[in-house]
Amino acid sequence: MKKVYSVKDIDDLHRSGALGSIPADAVITPSARDRLNELGVQRARRTGAAPASASSAGGGSVDERGIDQSVRANSPKADLERLFNSPAVHELKEQICDVGRRLWQRAYVDGNGGNLSIRLTEDVVLCTPTLVSKGFMKPEDLCLVDLDGNQLAGVKNRTSEILMHLSIMKAQPKARAVSHAHPPYATGFAVAGVQPPTCMIPEIEVFIGRVPIAPYETPGTPEMGLKVAELVDKHNTVLMENHGVVSWSNTIEDAYFKMEIVEAYCRTVLVTTQLGVQPKQFSPKHLKDLLDIKQKLGVPDPRIGLKECELCDNDEWRPGVTCAVPAKGGESTSATDPEAETVVKAVTDEILNRLKG
Ligand SMILES: [Zn+2]
């Protein structure tokens, strides 16, 4: 159980010079928090805070990426500019440009589409600009915004889809990086409204799990962000109906990996359905083995704890077009069935009569 820190604990630690020993996720009473504030100790807030592991509760609060966690959206402009131009943030800007190049090279984005973001501190987020190809971004193109999408720094205007990224970050504190693109195979599933089936390839089960579809909303609107955000407590990758894919993780590269995994999976499933046979699934028992591995890795999955018989439930999965192999000597029964013809003719005549009447 986590230790609860009271005012007395804080005073004791202060006297012994050990305030830095308070774990980043410690439970702190409101009055103890006030005492920390009086002592000038900066701490990232637990609820909704970026899951940065502050290296010290006393003095500076720099996370493992080298980001000063004391900077807030309402900090003086000079502090925000210092953060935006710091070597640690430059490194993250380079990572975003690198992932952008990979998205473009793999044709996961088109035109100026797609966008990427990284949460820097509790309410300060680094993101890609609008109207720039993700394949050719430079670090100086990136933007700084607050959690409402207001621009704090950067010469280019922030992406129009930032509200979705911010909704995800607000709903899921573990989402420190968000990647959005329009990879054609996964987007095809999103346009068809077909949720990718499960129990076919182990990798997606371990790293992603079931991929839900968020209902369509106009891109860039708060409504779209909210529809996606409703799903991110249980899913790290979401198909956006008639739009694309969004994934989140602790780092931008890992969020990008999820994009690759879901796209490769949808592509493979599509190929499978064209081979003229019913696709094979591995058994619920085998999925259970994968879920056990996931549990050991500490990756949550809403299916952990389900009954084995419920694990490979693909009720909504429609394999779609398959190559029909005509039976030997047999004729197709559907199109030329005389009984069906008679029914169709009777219905058509009835409709025509009513129209005339
Ligand atoms: Zn988009």
Question: In short, what is this structure?
Answer:
The protein is built from eleven helices and ten strands. The chain has helices at 7-15, 30-38, 77-84, 87-105, 162-171, 184-192, 202-207, 222-229, 252-273, 284-297, 338-356, and strands at residues 4-5, 27-28, 115-121, 124-127, 143-146, 151-153, 177-181, 213-214, 237-240, 244-249.
Task: Describe the protein's architecture and organization.
With 357 residues, the protein is α+β, with helices and mostly antiparallel strands. Among the domains are: 4-61, no CATH class; 82-272, L-fuculose-1-phosphate Aldolase (3-Layer(aba) Sandwich), CATH 3.40.225.10. The protein has eleven helices and ten strands. Helix 5 packs parallel to helix 8 (222-229). The relative contact order is 0.08. Mean pLDDT is 86; it is low at 44-59 and 330-335. The structure holds zinc ion (ZN). Zinc ion binds at residues 113, 161, 180, 182, 219, 243-244.
Q: Which outline best applies? A: globular
- Total number of β-strand segments? 10
Give unreliable regions as ranges: 44-59, 330-335
Structural class based on helices, strands and sheet pairing: alpha+beta
Topology:
Blueprint: E1 4-5, H1 7-15, E2 27-28, H2 30-38, H3 77-84, H4 87-105, E3 115-121, E4 124-127, E5 143-146, E6 151-153, H5 162-171, E7 177-181, H6 184-192, H7 202-207, E8 213-214, H8 222-229, E9 237-240, E10 244-249, H9 252-273, H10 284-297, H11 338-356
Parallel strand pairs: 1-2, 8-9
Antiparallel strand pairs: 3-4, 3-7, 4-5, 5-6, 7-10, 9-10
Helix pairs in contact: 1-2, 5-8, 6-9
Bound molecules: zinc ion (ZN).
